[in-house]
Amino acid sequence: MEFILIIVISAFFIGYYIFITFREVKIKKAEKAVKSGDLDTALAIFMEALRKNPDDVETLWHLGNINEEKQLYPEAIGYYTKLIELNKESKYYSRFELFKRVGLLYRKIKRDQDALDYLLEAYNLLPSSKEVLYNIASIIYSQKYFYRAIPFFEKAMDGYRNNPEFLKDFGFCYLMVEKWEEALSLLEEANKLDNTDYRKKFLLAYVYLRLGYYSKSRELIEEIANKYKDLMNINELFYAVKILYLVYLNDKHYDIVKDLITQLENINNNIPETPYKDDINMATFFFRVCQEYYDIALEILAKSISFKPSEEELSQEEKEEEKKSQSHLYELVSILARYKREKELQLYAEKKQFRDEIEFSALENKALEAKNELLEIFENWKWNFLSKDALWEFFGPKVESRFDPSLIIEKYTESKLTTLKKQTKIGLAKREEKEEKIEVEEDLCEKILQMDIPSFLNLARELADKMGFKIISQSVKTDPIASSEGKGVDFLCVEKYQPSTRVLFCFRRWRESIGYLSLMNMVEAMKTLQVARLVIVSTSYLSSEAGHAVENDKRITFYHCDDVVHYLE
Length: 569
Prior knowledge:
The protein is of the alpha/beta class. Helices cover about 70% and strands about 5% of the residues.
């Protein structure tokens, strides 16, 4: 009996040895085929091996690599995600490598929403990977969530400071949030490293213009127009001429400005439906105002504005008054036109009565006020005329679909992990019925707790702005007691670059944890205010029960004050 058992065991080991040896021979043959570039042979061998052992990590890894090499990206993603599900260690890969590869492959097939999910997981496993950081930043930036992209760009900077495309993207991100000095240094460096890309020059010229460096802006735009005209589309060319128009208008080179307006008209006539007619009319109007040809400016404005017809027959003077009543701009220029005429009469008249001098002085004051107001209108108009959003349409990354990356980001940020750790400590403390307070670190959190009420309110407004929210109402009070004591403030906001997304921003400076009832007051306010998201910033952590509620509600984002330090630096 023992002899038979020995034979069976020996046969098993011999068979196993033969199987392993045969398998290793096959694997080596497949690996050799990969090295020689015979991917189809290698693929056939590994597929046969997979049929025999569907969960073999080595086979799955090789199949992922081969399909990636053959640019069969969905198939490669399938093998890598299978390895993630198996969660087995291997000498061939780490979990970080798997998540990174899947994220990068999803980017290649234009599925950035899925890519962001995997790349953030990779980031949590290895926060120092510059490649992962850059790709995360690129995805968030491409979705126009610029404030959220900036911290990831900053962390990736050390690995890409000599990469002109990275510097261009980072600089463009700062441009879109109007951080002109930051954008300037990055775009200048990008242009030094790659002096042949007209897109980088275009963006740099725009930043120069916004900072008032007119001659530098003009030099770059004229270089683009001379060297890269054939690469630009007609809308980009139109925009370039608009930049030159503003530069030369600022320098009072009116003959050149007039020629540039003619160029704008010619370009517009070559675009279907002449979409820029209103832009050109206003450009011509302000050109004539700058020349102080107010009567001509009024004629241009009269043609541009659809004045309501009057039911009665009006005299010429009455028509003018009607136009003034319908257009404030027309009224302002009319004052300047009248002042110019009266000034000329004053200069050439031999004698004027004192009464006329008083009237002239009053008109002079009105003209000064009109000129200042008109200058303010012009300043606002010119940045609509040269909208940075148009630059985004020209040079921003093209995406297959739009999505809100915030919900994905919040699943993986360090603040979430920190919060969960603190919640666990709070839960244990409660179960053990220990009356211990959460330790508050002596940094930003402590400073916030010690601030006077006006400083706290100013900090809350600044933080909301830097986190990418535009405040539309400061009268919201989800907790009247906290508001009256200066312990809390609530703002109704919209996302700066997604104005359709309404957000309730709640800032609390409490030493005790935020409880479930306090959280529910905020959630109830979400319904009343019809907001899509709730953002909470606090000097204290969530209670265990409130933490679970936040964990299960994707609309809510919680930040401890330590997690927002970088926004206030």
